[in-house]
Predict the 3D structure of the following.
Amino acid sequence: MLAFTRVLLYLVVTLYNVLVVTLGNYLLVRKWRFASSLYRWQTSVILSAALVLYLMYGFYLSGITPVPALKDLDINPFIYSLWGLATGIAIFKYRLFDLAPIARETLIEMLSDGVVVVDAHARIVDANPEAQRMFGWEKTPVGQSVEIPMNNWINQALLKTSMDQQQLKLNP
């Protein structure tokens, strides 16, 4: 009952599924390449699940069976479910398509002023390209304390009190 014959419709549906997933993954890879490190984790979750999807689908088409006892079973629907679950986690838990990442990409990245995002422990979380240019960073030193890469720009006495005010002004 679990065996079936592959006909033309199977190939059409299969090609459509692979084409749609591949197009979506292409767009995600573009997003991943140009996104800040803050948003890369979200996209990596989906792309990792998609890699498993392609791998298992390749096994299935080539006749290689990862589980010999299930050699006649098409496990691709289960793998698509895994991919859908990973996508759901990225969308809902990590808020992949929230307005904030879109707004950040369009507003903060294009600002002519340098913007450095710092967490409550004075560690750098993100920076726009203008800030990277101002401080001479090739890439944002995510996770480092602001005291190290921005030492000449920050009044150390004001650093501690400014963290309570949520805004820190730099020395010109």
Summary: Residues 8-104 form one domain. The mean pLDDT is 75. The chain has two domains: 8-104, 113-165.
